[in-house]
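Exercise: predict the fold of this chain.
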Amino acid sequence: MTPLVQVEGLRVEFGAVQAVAGVDLDIHEGETLGLVGESGCGKSTLGRALLRAVEPSAGRIHYLGRDITALNEGRMRSLRGDMQMVFQDPFGSLNPRRRVADIVAEPLLRARGANRAEAAARVAELLDRVGLGAEAGRRRPHEFSGGQRQRIGIARALAPSPRFVVADEPVSALDVSIQAQVVNLLRELTRDSGLTLLFISHDLGVVRHIADRVAVMYLGQIIEVAARDDFFASPAHPYGEALLSSVPSLHRTRERIVLTGELPDPANPPSGCRFRTRCRYAVDRCRDEEPQLRAITGGRTVRCHLPLPTVPRELART
């Protein structure tokens, strides 16, 4: 089956900085793919590049088998209704001068050519669906809490009935007590509509709750992709192992692995494996040869010469 979104060798460069450094990734229709990694690894840039909100420097993006990498803005406009985004900041992503009804209706009017009556009916339906009520459309964003504003952002993204949505850290700016409400709302909406969701987050607990599969990103590269339960039970890449070990609530019995050193400079990444300078299993090959993303057992892929648990334990550095 052809993936809904297929990425091949995607690169995004800002001067000397390789924000996205040769990403290959498939996103299947109807799934929620959780994209995780440290701040600065390129997650948000990748998500925006898939929607052509950031222009790729190289590589290909296919949507429903169609190469959209080089489409001009006029042709991309016809796809905007199918591809939407929920932003991280619920305070800065909504125009404070406009009524909520107008904010939510805008992508429907622009991307789908709906008339005002159709748009009003759809907006009322969506505001009810996200738990705000149709009467919220008469108010302005400053009258709502952060969690309510994020619900408005979700309603806006869903207004044109998209097939693919990128949610970029949609709960990181919210109080913990509100995060679960918004994540549960997204789960419910994707289940009911068959929506395909790329959920970007640094919070593994949230990703475990919402994702079907997990993709791990490090220094501009995808280094592991696995089914959610497989990843949380036994990550194949040493970086994933370290990430999980840092969250005691997920793995109470797992050894805590402390990554030494800072995240390398993306303008001057290490030779060979980009993670080798922080990896306790690194060998000479890791310095000399860049690993490629490859399939291993269990339907997962990993960018590592010695994927876990095959790595000899005696190689572990303390």
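Check your answer against the key: The chain has a mean pLDDT of 91.
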